[in-house]
């Protein structure tokens, strides 16, 4: 039981009503959020003499304070619990790391509607089809649709400003509504109606209509038109053969499979709309030790679908391989209430749904095995590096690199690895300023000072700090970091990674702060880990530098002229017909632009010439 917390006194104040509780550690961090039908019963279960489960024992040991929020219903408690988990990301909760918005196919509500990928809030007028598991699935579908139904996918600005048809028209992928006379509104709308039916899963209705149109055209001796309809029918039939289609074309469901092994779980979701699999995706929730399968699945369903209620579409039916226990009915009621229609959660289905369930389960197992193998590889590399450097522990590493072109727009990167591999959410870039262009030593000193000068979380102190560079870079890094380490609870070691003379991978020289230099065999797992973190750091720095450089080069010289704001810039460019013409203009010609004085014209002329 926790020595930090007086459970007896606290439990006397707790009600038997439903609600949500938040548990804090001594630092004031929320470490667990839970909900209960009866708060007193649930909270009392944590403070018994014999607490079951390693996770619960570890949690109770760290409790310093508990907050309780009473709700009217279990549904309210479920929603509040979800909001708190999303806000605090507590250490002992199962967390679904999925904060991205899901993409849709969007059919605009224009005179000549456009098909496009849409992500985010549904503010634009038109129809949304999906959601799809990722942008790749949407792009693939749009590419397919363009081959079958030639309606435009170009931006509205392109469509509004064309005077002759583009390449898409030439190759038969667009009807060319941008140019008058190429297609009638009726013919274009006919294709739009086919797309709409196709995206709603009514393939058979589309084919029946096309067959009818083909026969009519043939009877009217319009053989070219009949051939075009025939080609569309053939293309649609090929697509039908490729897709896994349920016999019940009204199926609108998600099928969820789960696999669990070695302290890791994989949840695989199949998205099925109108009987077709739109796509699928594997999720690897962050889970505390000893979390059981029901808790993992229940947390996934709650977090995933309550997020969907904030902008995604919840399907009418969710098919699971495992029951959610006593919470299943409450979760279904909550989702139904939020969606404004009945949402069913089903387990142990039959027929086609059972086939889909087996498919989701197989995918979950396969993805988990692949992830575990990758994790084992990373762990083996960490162990090899720890042994090679004679370290007691190795749990975290950071690597720094500098990127610039001839001293222009210097950017430093810091990447972080733990025993599961790259921690991309902790990667950082630093724009280096106030140094002589090209002075890599000063750049390295600045980034390390900025990274470590403030108080560092003890859990985030790296065991190794890699410096991508030679002896000089390492020496400068040591001068900056060594004094700061005096306040750290543990010491980090600094290692320079110098490229070999031929700069080929496998020939790197490792330099220690003692002056010792050594190399590792090219097939060494420890060296592979060093190469991986060094390459990540290098790529992260380069991409940041390129973005900065592109930003500078896109800037107009006019932006640096004092007294020339956006309106005057626009007036100058419009009056002169563009930047190139403005550069050729004399002082007198610039002064003729409305709103530009003689003195300002001189300033603009000088700025553009130099």
Task: Please explain how this structure is put together.
The chain is an alpha+beta fold and 610 residues long. It is built from 20 helices and 19 strands. The chain has helices at 7-12, 39-46, 54-61, 74-88, 135-148, 156-160, 167-170, 185-199, 203-219, 223-242, 293-308, 328-339, 351-388, 440-452, 471-484, 525-554, 566-576, 579-584, 587-591, 598-609, and strands at residues 19-24, 30-36, 65-70, 104-108, 115-118, 126-129, 252-261, 264-273, 276-283, 317-320, 344-347, 396-405, 408-418, 421-422, 428-431, 464-468, 493-498, 509-512, 517-518. The strands form 4 sheets. Strands 12, 13, 14, 15, 16, 17, 18 and 19 form an 8-stranded mixed sheet that branches. Strands 9-8-7-10-11 form a 5-stranded mixed sheet. It has a 3-stranded antiparallel sheet with strand order 2-1-3. A hairpin with a 4-residue loop joins strand 18 and strand 19. Helix 9 (203-219) packs antiparallel against helix 10 (223-242) and helix 13 packs across helix 16. The longest helix has 38 residues, at 351-388. It is globular and about 85 Å long.
Write the layout of secondary structure elements.
Layout: H1 7-12, E1 19-24, E2 30-36, H2 39-46, H3 54-61, E3 65-70, H4 74-88, E4 104-108, E5 115-118, E6 126-129, H5 135-148, H6 156-160, H7 167-170, H8 185-199, H9 203-219, H10 223-242, E7 252-261, E8 264-273, E9 276-283, H11 293-308, E10 317-320, H12 328-339, E11 344-347, H13 351-388, E12 396-405, E13 408-418, E14 421-422, E15 428-431, H14 440-452, E16 464-468, H15 471-484, E17 493-498, E18 509-512, E19 517-518, H16 525-554, H17 566-576, H18 579-584, H19 587-591, H20 598-609
Parallel strand pairs: 7-10, 10-11, 12-16, 16-17
Antiparallel strand pairs: 1-2, 1-3, 4-5, 4-6, 7-8, 8-9, 12-13, 13-14, 13-15, 17-18, 18-19
